[in-house]
Amino acid sequence: xxxxxxxxxxxxxxxxxxxxxxxxxxxxxxxxxxxxxxxxxxxxxxxxxxxxxxxxxxxxxxxxxxxxxxxxxxxxxxxxxxxxxxxxxxxxxxxxxxxxxxxxxxxxxxxxxxxxxxxxxxxxxxxxxxxxxxxxxxxxxxxxxxxxxxxxxxxxxxxxxxxxxxxxxxxxxxxxxxxxxxxxxxxxxxxxxxxxxxxxxxxxxxxxxxxxxxxxxxxxxxxxxxxxxxxxxxxxxxxxxxxxxxxxxxxxxxxxxxxxxxxxxxxxxxxxxxxxxxxxxxxxxxxxxxxxxxxxxxxxxxxxxxxxxxxxxxxxxxxxxxxxxxxxxxxx
Length: 332
Description:
332 residues; Peroxidase; secreted
């Protein structure tokens, strides 16, 4: 019913643009992204995505965090080309780190609406980037203007995932290596880690932070982890770290995109080892302190880093396609 109402609303909205779109030439796709790329070929494209995300979020508050994580896992492997959406054996979705990803149904819903009004025009890669952008804004974060014009990739291999994704147990050097390979700086690393201000994680993703003592009781491995926070995590997650149980990345303001994440790090309440190391490492501790103290500074930096994230290895003319369905490549 929700999808039917959404389609009816957009039929009315699109009538305003129908004649103009039919007469206007479609915007050409090139390797150069540009703001308002769809202004002629699909003027309401960004509004359609935004309203789809808003509708999904109203039904499920976990959607924004899922969409933001989906973008990271897409862009870090094969670039921002929606390769993580392709289903099938041996694809990126087959890797264990991607099997807990969510938000696919939101992307599919937006794609169906766009295909109804602008068939074959808007790429799945752009939908993923726009949906993540809107997820941040809808949870109180900055509204970021991002360029569009990405094409969808045709390659999705499970073997490409492990070498390119940051693991929650990574050291600072390991994270710097991955981020640097994507053209992202040390400051980008800290700013984009701020994405953990929303969303949740499965217990198994931070089980490395605990061990069993001789009596079989769980104890923290890292002494810098706040004791009360460690107790909360051990109470929330049973001894076996049941992978079906989730914990908020930021237990203080879990549904708000804000700078509480950085305050948590300073208080020893970072959920992952890869979070905590940002404050314990001298190379980044000053940035953590700065963003914890000034939310506007975090938001301003986030906007710039987010644009760089969504521009990683984008596909242009001759390098990709506009998929008709986000889960499968087009037939030859």
